[in-house]
Design goal:
single chain; mainly beta; 9-stranded antiparallel sheet; 3-stranded antiparallel sheet; 1 helix; 14 strands; binds 2-acetamido-2-deoxy-beta-D-glucopyranose; IgE-binding protein
């Protein structure tokens, strides 16, 4: 979390400085990490983490890096989405796609596989630039945004905010809607692959 907060300060500093010479158009969307916002709830300020091909609020990022000569492994402890939010920011060739599976669960593909369950929503995730905060969201199936649903082991799993989601407790009313604040991440991919 500290690393993400440090990186979001950069655009603010840059805004106060003379315009830097940039090779990229200013409109290029950034890579980003996500922090949940819902004041007064147990998930307020929780970091969104990738683990087990799904996403969670709290817990920790689950990643893997092969020990192969020539690969310098990044720390792999931070969950970062690639620009636009429909893929992960990873080094593994082929990348990892992000989608919403038919139960409503926000999901990512295994490395070296393009396999996505039939009936999933692909391409419905988006990055919404804003000042001071940008957001990550989902639109599809009558859903708008995300919700966090409690699990048996006291975690919160991330779902598209749809009434007919199949959630761990069996009751969508147990889920907490949240705003997904997108925090700009700069630098090399933070992981080889998420697992
Ligand atoms: C990730 O690991 C690095 C190196 O061990 C550490 O410096 C950094 O604080 C960690 N970041 C997070 C978000 O846990
Ligand atoms: C959930 O509802 C939406 C909107 O009515 C529909 O498009 C979608 O197919 C439904 N999904 C399931 C799994 O029933």
């Amino acid at each position: 979390m500290k690393a993400v907060i440090a990186s979001i300060a950069l655009p603010l500093l840059a805004a106060a400085a003379p315009a830097p010479v940039s090779t990229a158009p200013a409109s290029n969307p950034p890579n980003f990490g996500v922090m949940a916002i819902h004041s007064g709830s147990p998930i307020h300020y929780a970091q969104m983490n990738a683990a087990g091909q799904k996403f969670w609020l709290g817990g920790s990022t689950s990643s893997y890096c092969p020990s192969i000569d020539g690969i310098v492994c990044p720390p792999g402890n931070q969950t970062v989405f690639a620009a636009g939010g429909n893929a992960m920011d990873v080094e593994v060739p082929g990348g990892q796609q992000v989608y919403v599976d038919p139960t409503g669960a926000l999901s990512f593909t295994q490395a070296h596989s393009a396999s996505i369950p039939a009936g999933s929503a692909v391409g419905g995730l988006f990055y919404e630039p804003g000042k001071p905060w940008s957001h990550y969201s989902f639109k599809g199936w009558g859903a708008q945004g995300f919700m966090a649903c409690p699990t048996d082991d006291n975690q919160y799993q991330v779902f598209a905010a749809m009434q007919n989601a199949t959630v761990p407790s069996g009751n969508v009313a147990d889920c907490i809607g949240f705003s997904a604040m997108a925090l700009t991440y700069k630098g090399d991919a933070p992981t080889w692959q998420y697992i």
